[in-house]
Amino acid sequence: MGSTAGSTVNPTAFRGTLGLALAMGMGRFFYTPVLPLMVAALHWGSAPGAWIATLNYVGYFIGCLVVARGWVEPDRLVYRASLIVSTLCLVAIPLSENLIWQGSVRTLAGIASGLIFVCITQRIPFVARRPLDSGIVYAGVGTGILVSGAIVLAASSFIEWHGLWLICAFLSAVFTVIAWTWPMPGPCLAAAKPTPSPPRHRPAARKQPRSRLLPDAEPWRS
Questions:
Q1: Contact 29, 144 (CB under 8 A)
Q2: Is 115 within 8 Å of 72 (Cβ atoms)?
Q3: Residue 134 to residues 17, 76, 84, 122, 129: CA-CA distances in angstroms?
Q4: What pLDDT is recorded for position 168?
Q5: Whole-angstrom Cα distance, residue 23 to residue 115?
Q6: Which residues contact 66 (CB under 8 A, 6 or more apart)?
Q7: Among residues 90, 63, 56, 57, which one has the least CA distance to residue 78?
Q8: Which of 123, 94, 90 is nearest to 109 (CA)?
Q9: How far apart are CA 200 and CA 216, in angstroms?
Q10: What does 38-71 look like in DSSP terms, one character per residue?
Q11: For residues 198 and 190, what is the distance between their CA atoms, to the nearest angstrom?
């Protein structure tokens, strides 16, 4: 029975896998394989792509920072809103070729990616039944990168870069539906902070009387 239990897949861990896949592997890193196609089609130099990628990194830093500083509580509402935003950002990229639009969308996508990463990873200790479960969740990053590369490799010969972003957005929406129920505390529980318990007063230790059977430890004072 132990071997059977060890071979079963924890469905909750699998939800975390897809959550990290859409946030990190697709929401962040789909830009890497599709960028050469965009550069060729839009006649970009090296600077626009570099700046847009940098803005995505800045957004990711902001997403993690606001949680680390306590400005945003990583609760169920933040997690699910970030899933939606990450998917919508994939849809928004092909809507305009304007560099300001592209940079703004990628910044927002980075923020959503950072928030999702924190929301999922902080709950892994409460979800993992075995050490293997943690690895399954973190495998979502590589899974998303693999999916991103596979989309471009399989479809770039007959679909333009606009369509590739939409394919990725569709898969991200499917992953969002599955990852939606990753266990996160509600807004009230996440915001509630435990109140410190009052200090307990310990009874004073009683002085043990010196035994009369023992010799005086300080004979010179007698």
A1: yes
A2: yes
A3: 9, 20, 24, 11, 9
A4: 97
A5: 9
A6: 72, 115
A7: 63
A8: 90
A9: 37
A10: HHHHHT--HHHHHHHHHHHHHHHHHHHHHHHTTS
A11: 23
Name the residue with tokens 């071997």: 3
**112-148 confidence digits (pLDDT tens):** 999 999 999 999 988 888 888 999 999 999 999 999 9
Q: What pLDDT shows up at residue 21? A: 97
For range 43-69, the mean pLDDT:
93
Long-range contacts of 183-186 (CB under 8 A, 24+ apart): 183/12, 183/123, 183/126, 183/127, 184/74, 184/75, 184/76, 184/79, 184/80, 184/119, 184/123, 185/75, 185/76, 186/75, 186/76, 186/77
> Distance (Å, rounded) from C-alpha 206 to C-alpha 222?
26
Return the closest-CA partner of residue 29 out of 4, 56, 68, 65: 56
CA–CA dist 33, 222 (Å, integer)? 92
Is this prediction's pTM over 0.90? no
pLDDT given at position 191: 53
Over residues 77-96, mean pLDDT: 96
The answer, yes or no, to whether residue 195 has pLDDT greater than 60, is no
How far is 139 from 179, CA to CA, in rounded Å?
A: 14
Q: How many CA atoms lie within 13 A of 215 on its CB side?
A: 4
Q: Which two tokens stand for residue 14?
A: 């699998």
Predicted pLDDT of residue 143: 95
pLDDT given at position 93: 95
